Amino acid sequence: MRPVILWFRRNLRLADNAALQAAVEAGSPIIPLYIHDEQDRGSASRWWLHQSLIHLDRDLRELGSSLLLRCGEPRQILDELAAQTGASGLYFARRYEPACIRQESDVSEVLEGRVSIEVSDDSFLHAPETVRTQSGTPYRVFTAFWKTASALGEPRLPVPAPDSIITAGPMPESLSIDDLGLLSADAEQRGNYEAAWAPGEAAGLRRVDDIESILRDYASHRDRPDLDATTRLSPYLYFGEVSVRQVWHAVRQLEMPLGSAAGGEALLRQLYWRDFSHYLLFHFPDLPDKPLRAEFEHFPWSTDDALLRAWQEGMTGYPIVDAGMRQLRQTGWMHNRVRMIVASFLVKDLFVPWQTGAEWFLENLVDADLGNNSASWQWVAGCGCDAAPYFRIFNPTLQGKKFDPNGSYVRRWVPDVGEPSYPAPIVDHAEARRLALEAYQSIKGIRTSKQAP
Question: Do residues 360 and 215 both lie within one domain?
C-alpha cells in the first residue's frame, strides 16, 4: 500500500490527536514527520521542543514506528518526501499563526492533485471561524466571545492513543534530534530548565491528573505566585503534548465531586482566554506587531537601554518585578499575575514599547505562544481588545503586598533583597505614573485610517 505522511506540528502527542487518528483509520502505512523551521523560536521553547521530540520518538517506537526529522521549508520537504515515498496522503493539524497559515497554503498548492490532504482542527476548543457576532464580524470583547463560544457546546470526548501504527517499511533517512540544533541555551541554563520541567506527553498527562489538587481553591488562589495553585499546563498545551479537550473534560469530571464549581469555571475561563487570544491572532494577523487601537501607534515611547536591561535582569529595585524576571530567566516560565505586573512596569513605568517586552518573553518562555503572548501584552499596554483602561497602572509595591503577602515568592527569587547589592528603585513609580497619564492624554481620541474595525 502507498503510505501517508503524518506531519506533526504543535500536536506532539499520541492520545487525542485528530490527525493521527484519521491517518490510522485510513489504514495505510504511516510516515510520522516533524519539520523544524523558522517557527521554532526562542531558546527556552527550543529546549522544550528538543525534549518533546525525544519523548514523541520514544512513544512512536513503542508502537513500532519512529519519528522522521527534517529541517527547512515544509513546502519543499513535503514535496520531496511525497515524491520519494509515493505517498498518497498528507495529514496534519491546523495552526493559526500568520506564517503557519501561509505554510499550509503553500503546501496545498504544491501537493494539490498529487496527494489527498486532510487537515484537522485540533488545537482549541473552537476553530476561529466558528465564533462570530450576529453581523458576521469577529468579536473584540472577551466576555461576548466567551458567551457565544461556550454556547456552541462542549468539545468532544478525548480519544486514547492507538494501540499500534502500520509502519511504512524502511523509513527514509532521518536527521537526528541533535542535528536540528535546538539547544542554543548554555549547559547551565539547560540544567535550570531540567530542574524545573519534565517535557513530554506522559508528564503532561500527569499534570492533567493533578488538576484535582488545585481545583477547589483555584478561583481564590490562582493569582498568588507564592502558592503552587496553578496547573502549569501552558507549555504542554502550547506544544500539544496534551490536548485542550483532555484538560476541559478533566475539569468537568472533577467539578461536581469536589464541589468546586467556582474553581472549575475559573479554569475553563482560562482555556477560553487561550482560544480568544488565537482567535484575535487569526482575525488580526498584525497582532504581534501593531496595536489594535491604532492611536497607540502615536504613543511617545522613550526606550532607555539601561532601564530595559535592568528589567531584563531583574534589577529594577521593585522586588515583585525582579522576582518575576528572575523566575523567567531561570525556569523559562513566570506566574501569570506576575507577567501582568512586569509587563505593566515595562510599558507604563519605563515607557518601553510593548513589542520589546513581547519579544523578550518569546525568547525566554518555554510556552512561547505567539497568540497568547501578543494578546496579553496588548491587553496590559491598553492598546488591544478588552484592554484595561490605560490609566489602570499597576503599582508594583501594592501588587507585591496583595499577591505575595508573606513575601515568600520574592524571597525565593530575590534572596538579595535588602542587601547592599540590591539596587534602589530605578524609577519613581508615582512620577512614572504621572508621565504615563500625560502621554496617554496626548494620543487620546486620535483615530487613523488604520483603526481596526
Answer: no
One-letter-per-residue 3-state SS of 39-83? CCCCHHHHHHHHHHHHHHHHHHHHCCCCCEEEECCHHHHHHHHHH
What 3-state DSSP class applies to 12? Answer: coil
Same domain, 114 and 133: no
Alpha carbons 192 and 331: distance in angstroms, whole number: 6
- Residues 43-61 as b/e (b if ≥16 CB within 10 A, e otherwise) read bbbbbbbbbbbebbbebbe
Question: Is 162 inside a domain boundary?
Answer: no
Instruction: Give the separation between CA 377 and CA 354, rounded to whole angstroms.
Output: 6
Distance CA 368, CA 148 (A): 28
- Backbone φ/ψ region at 382: left (φ over 0), alpha (ψ -120 to 50), beta: left
> How many of the other CB atoms lie within 10 Å of CB of 190?
17
Q: In this structure, are 309 and 209 located in the same domain?
A: no
For the chain, first and last CA: distance in Å? 51
Q: Which cell is 328 given? A: 523567567
**Would you list the DSSP string of 334-348?**
--HHHHHHHHHIIII
Residue of 394, 346, 355 whose CA lies nearest to 374: 355
Asked which of 122, 149, 168 is the last residue of a domain, the reply is: 122
pLDDT tens, residue by residue, 118-169? 999 999 999 999 999 999 899 999 999 999 999 999 999 999 999 999 998 8
90 φ/ψ angles, rounded to the nearest 5 degrees: -135, 130
For the chain, list residues with pLDDT below 50: 448-453
With residue 383 as reference, give the H or E element that holds it.
none
What pLDDT shows up at residue 183? Answer: 95
3-class state of residue 119 by DSSP: strand
